[in-house]
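Holo prediction. Input below; ligand is magnesium ion.
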Amino acid sequence: MTVEIADKRTDETRALLKNLDEVVKEWQKFDYSSAYQDNDLKQICLNFDRAKRRFGSTSFFIVIFGPLKAGKSTLANVLANDYVSPTGFGIETTRRPSLVMGSNEHCIEQYFSTDSDINNALRQFRVKKSDKAPHSEMTDDIKKKFRNEFELVYDYLREVGNEEEFQKYIHIKRLDLNEKNLKEVLTGDFGSGWEPLFTAIRCKKSELLNNKVVIVDMPGLDGTHSNWKEDPIHEWVIQQADYFFFCQSSVAAINMETKDFIRDIVGPKSSRPPIYLIQNIFEARTWQPQKVQQADIDQQRDDGAERLKNILEMQPRTVGLNLGKAWDGKNAPDKEWLGQTKFPEFEKDFVETLNSERSGIHENNCVKNLRNKIEEAEKILTQLHG
Ligand SMILES: Nc1nc2c(ncn2[C@@H]2O[C@H](COP(=O)(O)OP(=O)(O)OP(=O)(O)O)[C@@H](O)[C@H]2O)c(=O)[nH]1
Ligand SMILES: [Mg+2]
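Structure of the complex:
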């Protein structure tokens, strides 16, 4: 399949894609008589095809990550302008990641693998080791299948998928979008039933979502129930993200899991996706005069930025927002609270920044993804032919 290269691509990207087309064309002349080579080379061609198709997608994935109870789901709700992710005090609320996206439909969609091996493995990896019987490591075969299925869902959501293949491997369950169903699908225990690969929440109330931005709300990185480190979705989320919102609350320290995650996503400075620090300001010292409270708020934001700067080794884009107040403000009869949080300014500013930067960021991420696939292919070919 050839990908239409939009005019906005840089010359370098055009050249890369053209070279790749030529290589794949040459390979297609091979006689794949050996079964062993056949599978590997076919997989490489499939990976290239997918990586190329990603250039044609106009969706933009923003991943919200951070420690437990930082306000990640509250942020997702404020951005979506709708109740799309359950929030709660004092408990680990979000246990499964969700993809919040704009749509004329108003529904929840769960994507399940039709393969029971995949489902069993997914259940095993989602549950913390301490809560379950010891299991064997994930085999290469299962890893490959996982990857294939995650990518099928991803391509489908980006609207660059192969419908026939998607229907063969993925089953969709649709539910009404309401608080009860949201709670069940995103915060429920990991039982013995089928575990979704992903859950999409479709709604249409925010400008961001209507601009084909997809918000990914993740479980807290230091959760005691959800198991980010071993969940195969961890790798997928990092690879497919166009942009990261690091949601950090002023009343929690950056923990080890968060540091590890940031290190996983940052990579070399030249190719890392942008990370925006959303410092969730808890207006705690309400008994103090206004001036002291404001100084406190500014201090919380600056301290958060400083901590992240030390990990990233560069100054992150930062905003301090009282997310709880922004959400309450959105739902209050008058917009006074919302105005006090400066959320509308942040949103307007971010939409403008995104509109000017998104195609460049998207292209950069697509090129990085394609280069990874080329590197992988080189490794496989070296193993085959020395
Ligand atoms: N007082 C106050 N409460 C807030 C603020 N931001 C969020 N909350 C509340 O704090 C609780 C936790 O927020 P969540 O959005 O569930 O946090 P989370 O990071 O998604 O939590 P997990 O999914 O469990 O990791 C919710 O009840 C929010 O309404 C804030 O700025 N001030
Ligand atoms: Mg949450």
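Strands lie at 60-65, 98-102, 107-113, 170-176, 198-203, 213-217, 243-249, 275-280, 317-321. That is the main takeaway for now.
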